[in-house]
Every structure is written in structure tokens, then in C-alpha cells.
Design goal:
Blueprint: H1 2-18, E1 19-26, E2 37-40, E3 43-47, E4 53-57, E5 62-66, E6 73-76, E7 83-86, H2 136-142, H3 148-165
Parallel strand pairs: 1-7
Antiparallel strand pairs: 1-4, 2-3, 2-5, 5-6
Length: 166
């Protein structure tokens, strides 16, 4: 029992001197930030997990914490807090109006009813619409591709035929 306690104390003492656990959270929402990078002299030395936790090795120098859509912060390696709050840096873009000539539009996109997302649609031709070109299903069959639904259907059909023979 004493041996286990001694090993535990040695492990804790060596791990506390070798590295630190840092948590990075959003300043406004207080949610953890994933993929925040800790950079020292241009090299990434640590990054946060999906839980917002990074294991920072014992280093000396200026460390910059960088994350997409957040303002980067800089700390001296001796003064990094256990919890770092990053502020969002999202920018609202101005609205853009596109003006065009309706007569010059050659192809209008097919209308799709969002209320019927699983509505069967007519397969499109590969090289064009309206019968021009080769159908994509013809090309797939030429190279030996079979959709999973067809493979499943053939397997069930084969199993039923074997069952009927018995």
C-alpha cells in the first residue's frame, strides 16, 4: 500500500513540473473552445481538445493562443492562467445586391420543393439535359458500379429463391 502511495506522489510531482492543464473557453457563452493553438516561436506546442483543455509543456518564452473566429491573446509562459477566455471576432458582412439581365439567363435551376425532401426525381443526363448525352447510370454500369440498394435487392432475391427451393 505504501508503495502505491509513493508511486502516486512521484507521478504527481513529476507531472506537475513537466506540464500544465489549461482550459480555453468562449468569453460570452462560457463554452469550451476546440482547436485553440498554443504557439511558441512559430511552432505549435499544444492545442485544445473538444472539451477545451490543452496540456501545455513546461516552456519559457512568449506564448500566443490562436483560434479561428477569436481574437488571439499573448501571455508570458510563467503567467498563463488556468482558464483563458477568448473573445469572438466575427465580422458582419454588408449586404450585396446582384443586378442582372433576365433575358441572358440560359438555364434556370430546377425547382425543388423543400416540403418534400424525399421526392423521387428524374435522373439527369451526364452530358446534358433533355436526352442529350449519356445517362450516368449507363456509365456506372459500364464500369461495373452497382448501388448498394441493388446489391441488397439481389441478395434478398437470391435468399428467397434458395428458401423456396427448400
Amino acid at each position: 500500500m505504501r508503495f502505491i502511495i509513493v508511486l502516486l506522489l512521484i507521478f504527481v510531482s513529476t507531472s506537475t513540473h513537466a506540464q500544465r492543464m489549461i482550459s480555453v473557453i468562449d468569453h460570452d457563452t462560457r463554452k469550451p473552445i476546440w482547436r485553440a493553438y498554443f504557439i511558441l516561436d512559430g511552432d505549435t506546442i499544444a492545442y485544445t481538445s473538444p472539451e477545451g483543455i490543452a496540456i501545455l509543456p513546461k516552456v519559457s518564452g512568449i506564448i500566443q493562443i490562436v483560434c479561428l473566429d477569436y481574437k488571439s491573446v499573448t501571455f508570458n509562459s510563467d503567467s498563463i492562467p488556468d482558464v483563458i477566455h477568448l473573445k469572438s471576432e466575427l465580422e458582419q458582412l454588408e449586404e450585396i445586391t446582384v443586378i442582372g439581365d433576365k433575358d441572358k439567363v440560359k438555364h434556370k435551376p430546377e425547382k425543388w420543393d423543400h416540403n418534400e425532401p424525399f421526392k423521387a426525381r428524374k435522373p439527369r443526363d451526364w452530358l446534358g439535359e433533355g436526352g442529350a448525352g449519356i445517362g450516368i447510370d449507363v456509365i456506372f454500369r459500364a464500369v461495373g458500379y452497382r448501388p448498394a440498394s441493388e446489391k441488397r435487392r439481389n441478395r434478398v432475391k437470391k435468399n428467397l429463391e434458395e428458401y423456396d427451393k427448400k
